[in-house]
Amino acid sequence: MMAVASNNFATRLRPLRVPRVCVAVIGSDAAEMVGKAESLVRDHPFLEFRLDYLTRPALAVPKIKQFNEYHPHVVSIATCRRVAGGGKFRGSLASQLDLLGKFAGAGCQLVDLELQSASRCKPEQLNRLRAQAALILSYHDFHATRKLEETLEKMAAIPADFYKIVTTATTLHDNVLMMKFLEEHSDKHSLVGLCMGEQGLISRVLGLRAGSVFTFAALSEDEKTGPGQITAQDLQSTYRIEQVDAATRVFGVAGDPVAHSLSPAIMNAALRRETVNGVYLALHAKTLKDLLGCVRDIPIHGLSITMPYKQAILSHLDNTDSHTTKIGACNTVVRAQDGKLYGFNTDTAGVVRPLQQRMQLEKAKILVLGAGGAARAAVFGLRERGAEVSILNRTHEQAQKLARSAHARVIKRVDLKKLSFDVIINATPVGMGNTRESPLNEGEIKARYVFDMIYDPLETRLLKLAKAAGAEVIPGVEMFVQQAARQFEIWTGKPAPAEEMMRVVMKALEEREAARQAKDAQKKQAG
Ligand code: NAP
Fold it and tell me: Is the bond preceding residue 475 a cis peptide, omega within 30 degrees?
């Protein structure tokens, strides 16, 4: 048991150093909560017991006391947030204080009290609490990131050991506001700061280096205690938060939406494998202006650009290579030492590399289905390597336009049955997700290789038909890995660990597919 005497707990906590990631633990009863804590302690020595999730928090005192005694190396926070402060506790302020005192007595070294409650307390009440545990005075804004200085000023009038300000990011730039605030004030106060929401990811990963003493993580996807919270596992193994420091270079995939992008998994794995001090984030950019502001202010070293910005980004770049200009779409941005932004298109490498591994492209007869951005990257890249390219597109004029500028041929669907190719490439979205559609029918596929750019599902209907027609198939995942590998090379100057990248993306796609199948099976059972 801890002996309690000083009214300044933080002075005794500091030499111990609070770990950098605190995992929030919830449960429907004390046994479940402590059971989860037990399963965590080996890897995570810093926990927050969210007592307000319990129907009767007081019943948890003996179990948590026992847990804390059994794990003296663990630092734990007792939080029993009231509804008014964004929590679930419906009791009075007096019972909240009483509970926090009891959990401090049960060995929780820190207690969290929200500003709404603390500002109604008498100084003696707070002193009494601080005599037992370090006090985290917390403030949550569930709508915006605003008035950070003003809020801190209000909070600082109440003596506490840590001041925690959690806001909501509605733009990417809100993270910049939060991190600048942390940088400016963390020498005067022990601050914990982050932004909630999908767009708050930057602050969850980079907040520590801006001056937040620690940050929060969820135990699992289903146990998040705040919007946008990341699991401890992701924070530690995907984003390697323990290694993020002032020198860590920031990369990201920018688009709208980006929540399901596999790029963070593949790129962080590559950075880890090649021991590059860098981290790669999903950046949900609702406007390009918001994104570009962050590129300069964070700063961001490299970007993967995805829908809907591949074309629109071009006019914001300082330079692009001639190949990218020709394609008219950019999927890769580098911010050079001088702050200038350079654009590239690596979708071409994504198409060309898997083909070159299998064949000579010079004089190869290749049919490209589609005339959008990805088709353009394929057509120009293949033409530059001497392939004879034909284009078939739903809107014939688009195919003609592309064919003219790339010196390729256009064909009509009715002629397809008479023609055969070395390779057919699908650069349309037909067959994506759960649709089971194919851009070509049986009898229309006469080729040695069929390459589908679509990678989810792993095996599209087109690839199934191609196999049945005796063609060899090239799945879209190869393009995904190779375009990412080329990005990695542009950003880091190192060869990309393509095999590791493939392993990671295959695992993620297989998990997705299994989840989809399970859902389908459930639906069938229910229907
Ligand atoms: P995009 O610019 O929107 O172009 C889409 C093309 O597909 C257009 O030519 C369009 O024809 C055609 N199309 C759309 N819906 C169609 C339909 N229902 N039937 C027939 N044709 C249709 O898209 P994009 O950026 O080029 O991407 C195309 C595909 O490539 C997407 O599935 C994307 O996920 C995939 N891709 C994969 C990778 C990878 O790494 N594996 C990389 C980039 C792209 P119209 O001209 O008639 O509209």
Answer: no
Token pair for 429: 């979205």
Burial tier of 527 (Cβ tally within 10 Å: 0-12, 13-18, 19+): exposed
Ligand 1 atom, smallest distance to 375 CA: 26
Query: In the structure, which protein residues have their CB atom closer than 6 angstroms to any atom of ligand 1?
Result: 347, 350, 370-375, 393-395, 398, 427-430, 432, 439, 453-455, 476, 479-480, 483
Q: Which of 421, 419, 422 is nearest to 358 (CA)?
A: 422
Closest among 318, 321, 312 to 340, alpha carbons compared: 318
Q: Which of 274, 262, 235, 267 is nearest to 250 (CA)?
A: 267
pLDDT (0 to 100) of residue 4: 37
Mean pLDDT, the chain, integer: 95
- Rounded (10°) CA dihedral 281, 286, 291, 297: -90
Say which DSSP state 153 is in.
H
Is residue 307 within 8 Å of residue 284, measured between CB atoms? no
Q: What are phi and psi of 135, to 5 degrees?
A: -100, 125
Cα 185 from Cα 211, distance rounded (Å): 8
Atom 22 of ligand 1: nearest residue by CA position: 428
Nearest CA to ligand 1 atom 11: 394
3 state DSSP class of 3:
coil
Question: Which atom, in ligand 1's list, is nearest to the CA of 482?
Answer: 40
Catalytic one of 36, 164, 224, 310:
310
Q: In angstroms, how far is the first alpha carbon of the chain from the final one?
A: 56
- Per-residue pLDDT averaged across 491-506, rounded? 98
**Vertex 298, ends 138 and 350: CA angle to 5°?**
120
428-447 confidence digits (pLDDT tens): 999 998 888 999 999 999 99
Q: What is the mean pLDDT of residues 292-301?
A: 95
Q: What's the rounded Cα separation, in Å, for the pair 241 and 244? A: 5
**Residue 449 clears pLDDT 90, i.e. is over it:** yes
pLDDT at 520: 85
Share of the chain above pLDDT 70, in %: 97
Spacing, Cα 374 to ligand 1 middle (Å): 7
- Residue among 282, 262, 279 at smallest CA distance from 505: 262
Strands (E), 127-207: 134-140, 162-168, 191-196
Residue 286: pLDDT over 60: yes
Residue to mutate (ligand 1; options 453, 454, 462, 509; most atoms within 8 A of CB): 453
Active site residue 310: yes
Give yes or no for a contact between 259 and 178, defined as CB atoms under 8 angstroms apart: no
Confidence of residue 12 (pLDDT cuts 50, 70, 90): very low
pLDDT greater than 90 at residue 8: no
Whether the per-residue pLDDT at 10 is higher than 90: the answer is no
